[in-house]
Task: inverse folding
């Protein structure tokens, strides 16, 4: 036995690298963590495991985990919660996001057949298992958050942030509102309220949660909240733009469906050019929100905002 073996270094991203490499590192580490730590929990519910694996282990852009990790390093080199615990929190938000995609794709919602370039969860595993898998992912995510934040003293705050992001104030409320409003004949900026809740709330929640994990101070939390909200609004407006101008093979899902369904979108309200200008303004605002932050991840947060403001998938 080698008694002098150095203990395994805790996981940390190399923030001096370009954004694409930092994101690839986060995505790969997440992939290993999901396989090693998360899917094991579903072995006792063996029939659900393939459905959960199908939805969770096929990577999308992993935007929300990146926001968690980068926000945690927006204050200092040494976040209060780091290593595998930070990865666990990043995984939990990806689980919340994955649940929302599974349920959003169901026949009773958007009725989509493709997601991330592969069949949606209910197409591959049936409506019943997809519904179970989505519900379990949401609840298991809160189990992980409770475990990882329990020693930090900010568990109640973290639970509230995630509850607001995913619940009536956020994703569920926004998605419900989206189904209630007609695509035309409502006030010009009604789409912003839908976007704020159904999409921006979770991105904002990720930045806040990452800040809490990092142990940053209150002014930094306010800055991260503002950054996350502007970025989230821009992110959804681009989703609307891609539905009009995007290529189905590149985007990995059906396009043209919003106009067909008469949805209230940024493009329906502002037109393609107007929606593009609206995105640019939001990305500028997001960048300004970062002005007071000085941690090692701040340049990468700026790169991410720029990159998402120009994304094609
Ligand atoms: C109670 C039925 C029910 C639903 C729960 C489904 C739901 C609430 C909310 C859906 C909210 C939703 C899907 C908003 C769209 C947000 C959005 C643009 C998702 C796509 O995110 P990306 O592009 O996806 O980050 P990838 O695949 O890259 O992870």
Result:
């Amino acid at each position: 036995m080698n008694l002098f073996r150095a203990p395994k270094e805790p996981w940390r991203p190399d923030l001096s690298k370009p954004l694409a490499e930092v994101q690839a590192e986060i995505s790969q580490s997440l992939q290993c963590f999901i396989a090693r730590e998360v899917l094991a929990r579903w072995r006792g519910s063996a029939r659900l495991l393939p459905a959960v694996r199908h939805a969770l282990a096929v990577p999308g852009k992993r935007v929300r985990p990146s926001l968690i990790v980068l926000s945690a390093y927006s204050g200092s080199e040494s976040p209060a919660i780091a290593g595998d615990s930070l990865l666990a929190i990043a995984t939990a938000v990806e689980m919340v996001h994955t649940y929302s995609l599974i349920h959003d794709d169901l026949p009773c919602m958007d009725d989509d057949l493709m997601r991330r370039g592969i069949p949606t969860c209910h197409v591959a595993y049936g409506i019943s298992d997809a519904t179970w898998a989505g519900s379990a992912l949401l609840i298991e995510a809160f189990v992980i958050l409770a475990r990882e934040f329990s020693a930090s003293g900010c568990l109640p705050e973290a639970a509230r942030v995630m509850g607001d992001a995913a619940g009536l104030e956020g994703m569920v409320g926004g998605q419900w509102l989206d189904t209630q409003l007609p695509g035309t004949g409502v006030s010009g900026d009604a789409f912003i309220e839908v976007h704020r809740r159904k999409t921006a709330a979770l991105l904002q929640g990720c930045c806040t949660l990452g800040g809490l994990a990092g142990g940053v101070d209150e002014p930094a939390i306010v800055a991260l909240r503002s950054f996350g909200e502007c970025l989230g609004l821009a992110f959804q407006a681009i989703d609307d733009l891609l539905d009009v101008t995007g290529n189905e093979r590149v985007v990995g899902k059906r396009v043209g469906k919003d106009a067909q369904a008469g949805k209230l979108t940024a493009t329906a309200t502002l037109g393609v050019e107007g929606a593009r200008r609206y995105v640019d303004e939001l990305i500028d605002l997001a960048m300004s929100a970062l002005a007071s932050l000085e941690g090692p991840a701040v340049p990468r947060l700026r790169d991410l905002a720029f990159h998402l403001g120009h994304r094609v998938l």
